[in-house]
């Protein structure tokens, strides 16, 4: 019961329908859940689980996690009459789920919790923290926590545990303050969980904690726990001081929680370690039943089943079971329970046998569960009689033990476990005393019956939970378990008896024994008290029954035995047949002899006589092998009449033939029999040797013949002509039939060939058939082995991932194995389709050998590519289908031709479509555009995703003719043709300046300078220039052009597709 990490089942309860409710702790994220309140594990430090099983244990009713992120444990569970589950334990999670909480927040490092889960398991009716702010040691066990829970008929919940908090909530407290480093506590919550009815500390000045709690019909609470305090509060104790090392306390609180009815230590003193507490239960009379373990040699015993601690290891533990009377003033009984084993732990200081839990039925039968390290633990009526743990020097298995109601003997006791450690930590009883046991187990072979979960999921060394239901042994046994009176003459009486024995060393209170029909009870000196009474333990009584048939034919009925046990009533089946007086058969014995030379002898008559005045109904007449019969007896023989049965001896071979002729009828001495004794002194011929074995022969070939001899014995039939035949993959050549017969004492030879038609072991039969004195067949077995290679191909097909066209995939391997019993040869391997192969097989593969064939996919086209790998050899032709998908892309355009005038642009739209799931980037380029034009791709890179297409716009721009050059700078035109004019003006200018020089020297000088400057500038701008005009722009020439747009995959550049676009320039 669990997941794949680690789990432990800690507590169990059972309802009136037999449904089991289990709680515990899981570390597994895959713990089985159904209709969960909480579907997931929130902590790797442990989470509570709550699970309900149906009555047969074959299905979950619900199963849920219950916990937060800090680490939690489910320690105990109880249920009410409505099927609501009450769970308690310890939580270290601040986010533990709460509902209508009495305490809404975690106060300390860890606190107790109490939760009430709905009958469907889908919601919390309430859930609350219960604790204070104290923080003990780092171990959560030394912080606040609850360990036991009980529920009364009103739905009040009673919990106990331990607290290290001085502010633990108290209400109407018997003890209002923390007396030691840890005290026990007892708290009672109202049915809604909204308030404490009472809550009290319970402890002395040292470490104390409450382990388990029970409640009686008056609301009084019975608490058992552990105490190390010498001043633990006691009231009317049967033992006023405890174990020096720590031990057990038992206390009873009144219904108000305001006073102790009694409180006592329960320990031994001769020990090297503390006693340990397991659990407590209470019966309807208020008697308390306590279990645990003790290392002491002087644990108090009263009327013990086992008077001493059986440990032979100087202080190892035995379990104990004690019953305390309702007043708490005396032990009714107290007994050790255990063997001599010991495992090493921190108690005594070595542990042995430990009881963890106890339950009691309404009659006072007490059952305990725990773990034992003993191979001699006491068992009785055990379902498992030995300790199966063989993994350590000291083995540990779980155990389940029940005492009878008086506590004077074991009712049953059994181991429970596999070949590793196991412990039973919880137990509950249903109305039939079926024990429901839970715990943890390390063994993968833990015994399972009708399991909901058949296997252990955890890794080796981790524990998983378990739940088991154990039916008690019957209270009584009957020997014999049924009575068959056989044939009884109608109207007469026959008597038989059954011995009743109480089991489990317990007396049985009979409440009534009855029967009916043609059967009756009679009283003898040893008869049981039919009307009611007690049959003492270890004694017996008889149930004496008569059969007086009132009519012919079969009669059936039962004896019903009722008593106070949970398995009452039980039945004893009765049967008998009313019949006629005895029939006679004569003779009583027949003796036959047979000799083949003499032949068949006549039948021998047997006479059946009806001595009654009524008809004798005959059902059948039978004879054994070697005999035949015919009769006139069926279906009946008249009153005082007779019939004849003719018996013939028909042996099929030599040797003795002994058996019985049987007549089945309704006479009271039914059946009637005749002893038949026969012997055949001669038999038919036989083969020598009796079988032939051929070696290995290739299928379709034949082996050298072997010879077998047919021998007719010296006392055989002379002149018999056998018919020789053969079956299977064999054929023969013989001289037996050619000789017409095999005379007495003679023989003939038969040559047998083996020609297998299939591989493997081949069998056949050689036969010689005779007809005298009866049809007889003599046989010899034939065996040979057909050799044939077998071909195993793995895998049977290859499917390659998508591969870019014109590239080669990574290889995939095919393993060829010769699975036959002959060499595989010669071997040729061919392939078809876009695939390549290499292999290391050669032409020969030995028996059992393997070779490898490497296949690669090289698609040449987009889409699915298929092919076949074909192997041809002496085993036939084998094929492996090959498939893969080639990836490519296509480039298309809705129009590939445009007509434009010079100066206009031709526009095209290209579509790039992936093929075969092509998912790569494609680069595009444009070439062969006409002069005086430009080609633009938008975009020039497209990424395809395997399914969607991409679009590219192509624009080819042309240029119109023009005188102005479309680009570049040119010098202004030259003025070379005006040089004469230039020089003429220059001379005139110079003369004018000279004329005026005399009158205005200063001004003339300025004019001269200015004129020279103008002439220099003129020369610089145009004096050296050319007179050739600048070139004109001719534009894009008219004509029809083919422009190439090329698309190439960017990753490998192996895929290239070019589309040609036609453009006419007018």
Structural class assignment: mainly beta
If classified by CATH, what would the architecture of the largest domain be?
Beta Barrel
Average pLDDT metric: 88
Percent helix, as a range, is under 10%
The biggest beta sheet is recorded as: 8 strands, mixed
Structural summary, described in words:
Helices cover 4% and strands 47% of the residues. The protein is mostly beta strands and 1066 residues long. It folds into seven domains: 77-267, Lipocalin (Beta Barrel); 274-433, no CATH class; 476-579, Immunoglobulin-like (Sandwich), CATH 2.60.40.10; 583-681, Sandwich (Immunoglobulin-like), CATH 2.60.40.10; 686-785, Immunoglobulins (Immunoglobulin-like); 791-887, Immunoglobulin-like; 894-959 and 1041-1065, Sandwich (Immunoglobulin-like). Helix 1 runs antiparallel to helix 2 (1001-1023). The protein is flat, with a radius of gyration of 54 Å. Residues 964-983, 995-1009 and 1015-1028 have low confidence and may be disordered.
């Amino acid at each position: 019961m669990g997941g794949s990490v680690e789990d432990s089942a800690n507590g169990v309860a059972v309802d009136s329908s037999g449904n089991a409710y289990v709680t515990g702790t899981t570390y597994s994220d895959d713990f089985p859940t159904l209709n969960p309140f909480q579907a997931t594990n929130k902590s790797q430090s442990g989470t509570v689980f709550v699970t309900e099983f149906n009555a047969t244990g074959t299905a979950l009713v619900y199963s849920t996690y219950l916990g937060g992120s800090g680490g939690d444990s489910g320690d105990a569970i109880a249920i009410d009459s409505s099927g609501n589950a009450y769970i308690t334990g310890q939580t270290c999670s601040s986010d533990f789920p709460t509902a209508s909480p009495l305490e809404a927040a975690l106060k300390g490092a860890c606190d107790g919790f109490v939760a009430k889960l709905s009958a469907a398991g889908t919601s919390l009716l309430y859930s609350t923290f219960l604790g204070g702010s104290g923080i003990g040691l780092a171990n959560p066990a030394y912080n606040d926590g609850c360990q036991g829970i009980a529920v009364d008929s009103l739905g009040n919940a009673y919990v106990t545990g331990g607290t290290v908090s001085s502010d633990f909530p108290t209400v109407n407290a018997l003890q209002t303050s923390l007396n030691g480093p840890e005290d026990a506590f007892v708290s009672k919550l109202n049915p809604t969980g909204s308030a404490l009815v009472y809550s009290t500390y319970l402890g002395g000045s040292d470490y104390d904690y409450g382990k388990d709690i029970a409640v009686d019909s008056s609301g009084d609470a019975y608490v058992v726990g552990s105490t190390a305090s010498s001043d633990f509060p006691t009231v009317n104790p049967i033992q006023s001081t405890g174990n020096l090392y720590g031990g057990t306390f038992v206390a009873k609180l009144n219904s108000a929680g305001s006073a102790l009815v009694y409180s006592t230590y329960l320990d031994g003193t001769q020990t090297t370690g503390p006693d340990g507490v397991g659990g407590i239960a209470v019966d309807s009379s208020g008697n308390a039943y306590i279990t645990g373990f003790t290392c002491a040699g002087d644990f108090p015993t009263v009327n013990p089943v086992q008077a001493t601690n059986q440990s032979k290891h100087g202080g190892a533990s035995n379990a104990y079971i004690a019953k305390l009377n309702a007043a708490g003033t005396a032990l009714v009984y107290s007994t050790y329970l255990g063997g001599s084993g010991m495992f090493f732990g921190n108690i005594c200081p070595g542990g042995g046998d430990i009881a963890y839990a106890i339950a009691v039925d309404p009659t006072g039968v007490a059952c305990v569960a725990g773990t034992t390290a003993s191979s001699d633990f006491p068992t009785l009526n055990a379902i498992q009689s030995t300790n199966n743990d063989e993994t350590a020097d000291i083995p540990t298995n779980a155990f389940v033990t029940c005492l009878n109601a008086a506590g004077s003997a074991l009712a049953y006791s059994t181991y429970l476990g596999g070949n590793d450690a196991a412990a039973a930590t919880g137990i509950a009883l249903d109305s039939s005393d079926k024990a429901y046991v839970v715990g943890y187990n390390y063994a993968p072979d833990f015994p399972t019956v009708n399991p909901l979960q058949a296997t252990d999921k955890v890794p080796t060394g981790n524990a998983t939970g378990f739940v088991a239901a154990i039916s008690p042994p019957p209270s009584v046994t009957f020997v014999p378990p049924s009575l068959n009176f056989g044939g009884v003459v109608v109207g007469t009486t026959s008597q038989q008896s059954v011995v009743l024995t109480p089991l489990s060393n317990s007396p049985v209170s009979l409440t009534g024994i009855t029967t009916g029909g043609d059967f009756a009870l009679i009283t003898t000196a040893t008869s049981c008290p039919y009307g009611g009474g007690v049959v003492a333990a270890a004694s017996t009584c008889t149930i004496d029954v008569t059969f007086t048939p009132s009519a012919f034919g079969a009669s059936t009925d039962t004896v019903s035995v009722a008593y106070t046990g949970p398995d009452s009533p039980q039945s004893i089946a009765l049967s008998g047949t009313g019949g006629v007086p005895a029939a006679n058969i004569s003779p009583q014995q027949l003796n036959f002899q047979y000799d083949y030379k003499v032949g068949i002898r006549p039948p021998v008559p047997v006479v059946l006589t009806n001595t009654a005045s009524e008809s004798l109904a005959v059902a059948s007449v039978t004879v054994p092998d070697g005999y035949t019969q015919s009769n006139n007896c069926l279906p009946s023989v008249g009153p005082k009449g007779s019939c004849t049965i003719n018996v013939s001896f028909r042996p099929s071979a030599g040797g003795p033939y002994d058996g019985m002729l049987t007549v089945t009828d309704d006479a009271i001495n039914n059946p009637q029999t005749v002893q038949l004794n026969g012997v055949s002194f001669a038999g038919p011929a036989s083969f020598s040797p009796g079988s032939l074995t051929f070696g290995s022969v290739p299928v379709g070939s034949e082996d050298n013949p072997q010879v077998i001899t047919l021998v007719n014995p010296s006392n055989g039939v002379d002149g018999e002509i056998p018919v020789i035949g053969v079956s299977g993959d064999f054929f023969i050549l013989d001289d037996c039939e050619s000789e017409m017969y095999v005379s007495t004492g003679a023989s003939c030879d038969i040559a047998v060939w083996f020609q297998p038609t299939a591989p493997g072991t081949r069998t056949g039969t050689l036969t010689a058939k005779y007809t005298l004195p009866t049809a007889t067949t003599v046989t010899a077995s034939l065996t040979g082995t057909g050799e044939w290679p077998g071909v195993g191909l793995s895998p049977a097909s290859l499917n390659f991932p998508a591969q870019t066209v014109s590239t080669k995939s990574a290889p995939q391997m095919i393993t060829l194995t010769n699975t036959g019993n002959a060499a595989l040869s010669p071997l040729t391997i061919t392939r078809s389709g876009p695939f390549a192969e290499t292999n290391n097989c050669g032409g020969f593969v030995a028996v059992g050998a393997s070779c490898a064939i490497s296949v690669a996919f090289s698609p040449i086209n987009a889409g699915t590519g298929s092919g076949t790998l074909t192997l041809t050899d002496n085993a036939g032709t084998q094929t492996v289908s090959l498939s893969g998908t080639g990836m490519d892309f296509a480039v298309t355009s809705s129009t590939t031709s445009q007509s434009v005038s010079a100066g206009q642009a031709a526009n095209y739209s290209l579509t790039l479509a992936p093929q075969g799931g092509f998912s790569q980037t494609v680069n595009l380029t444009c070439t062969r555009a006409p002069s005086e034009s430009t080609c633009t791709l938008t975009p020039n890179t497209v990424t395809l995703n395997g399914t969607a297409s991409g679009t590219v716009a192509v624009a080819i721009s042309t240029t119109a003719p023009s005188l102005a050059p479309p680009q570049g700078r040119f010098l202004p035109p030259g003025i070379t043709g005006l040089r004469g004019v230039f020089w003429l003006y220059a001379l005139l200018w110079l003369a004018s300046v000279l004329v005026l020089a005399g009158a205005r020297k200063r001004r003339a000088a300025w004019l001269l300078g200015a004129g020279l400057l103008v002439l220099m500038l003129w020369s610089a701008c145009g004096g050296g220039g050319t007179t050739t005009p600048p070139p004109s722009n001719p534009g894009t020439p008219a004509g029809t052009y083919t422009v190439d747009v090329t698309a190439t995959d960017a990753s490998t550049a192996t895929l290239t597709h070019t589309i040609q676009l036609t453009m006419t320039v007018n």
